[in-house]
# Entry
Amino acid sequence: MKQLIFVDYAIIGAYVLASFAIGNYYMRRAGSSLDEYFLSGRKTAWWLIAVSMAATNYSIDYPLAVCKLVAKYGIMGTWYVWSLAMAAVATTFFFSRLWRRARVVTDAELIKYRYCGKVGNALRIFKSIYFGVIINCFVLGWVFRALTKVMTVLTPWNQWYVLTFAVVVTVIYTISGGLCAVIITDFVQYIIIIVGAVVLACYGVAHVGGLGAMSSKIEALYQGKHYLDFSPGLEGGQLMPWSAFLVYLFIQWWANKYSDGGGKHIQRMSAARNEVHSVLGTFVYSILYVLSTWPIIITALCALILFGNLPDPELSYPRLMSALLPNGVLGLCVVGLLGAFMSTISTHFNLGPSYLINDIYKAFLVKNASEKHYIFVSRCATGLVALVGMILSAFIESIADMWQFVLSFASGAGIIWILRWFWWRINAWSEFSSMICSAVVATYLKQAHPEIPFESALLIIISITVPVALVVTFLTPPVSDETLRDFYNRVRPGRWGWRRIAEKYGIKRTPYLAKAFVNLLLGLALLFLVNFGVGTLLLRSVWLGVGEILAGALLAFVLVKRIQKEDLPLDPQVPSPPRRLETGELASGV
# Structure
């Protein structure tokens, strides 16, 4: 097993210096206002949004957890990830325009416009702590744990020294350049991430004798387990039961903390130049997200051939790196993983303080300070969030298990976060009850019944939380009609569920849901064609795979035309109406 040597450390050092340079370059711009620090001035192009989202979600924990899912269920285990890509498509067409119209810094700020009174203020504070501290620090904890797992295999250094060094580097460029520096470094990091993942997959495939030999050896070693199937079959014997597959396909993608976007994605949608950039960026991200799984899947299959089913399958990824990659190439792939690590934690270092400063400190504690004061406090909060995440990482063993727990923690509230956009009757108590109930039930099941499979736990949490939230909704008073009217005029979510308010105030009909639903169906078809086209090309039939990818490309052309043709209504927060995006503008920069 190889470990890092001087040439590898030189490559890593050059990458670290480049990250510092980007943060320093954007320091003055980030320090000018909170909008610049947390939203890059709301001027980000769609392609930067897409790549930044993809880089943020491809963290160092991502290949480790996917390797465990493939080892446990075969390729179909990746449906856990693919279902979240379905959620991203739904977010694209139902919510990306709405978040851009809301013109908020965080999703918690939306509460100021959707609800009213003391209960609304209490919910905003509660949600800021819920996402900005609890969820945010759990995510940082498992990402930090992933780094220590990787470096345990690749270097003899004390893993806490390595973790502290990586965190300090990321904190420095994050607090220096704000979201703009995060997005630009995400772009550079994503290129390195994908190159590193593809290089490792190629070395793995070459070592086992090619893709055909890899498939044959997997079938021989794991007979009757259907490791190479994309979904469960009718003949039985597959590792993933139909019940789990159906939960991933029909439930998980809306029953999670990202049901209407999720904090880090909402931050980027809000940072877009206009609604079309927000839509295109979010949709392209969903495609990049599923495509990024295939190099990891191939690597995981090669690791199963070389190492078998390890006691900790998450270690198969760094072990394969150490076993197969020559020094220099090893350094490049480690930089890819460091890029994955830093792209994610830089986002969460920026996101967590955005809740604490924008939705608690500035909104309720210190209301009239200067922008420089708020930015200084935000930078201090970043250090606090990083410290809490490092402490939590010491208590996390399995990254994949923590993934699933955090997803289930807020799963019961997912449908409420969707309904608040499209149904006037949802109130602040609906969100309170759903978030608390979901967290309590998820924690109870994790502690008292850890043997219950994730998909069964998800169904239990939803079946308890949703009725509780609906009962609470009807037992508590609705939001005032004036607040509802202002919210409807602000985001224009379509008339379904808002007919009473629209008719009372004579609000003109704004078609939204019908177009969004058609775009959703087209988007999901495109997602599956491209995703399974790549898988088919690699593992089954080249011509069939190419045909599926070409069909997806044709559908993409149709979908982009539909997005561009949709009328952009006036934004009440902007003095002049936004222009419709022309085709020639799609390649413009920040």
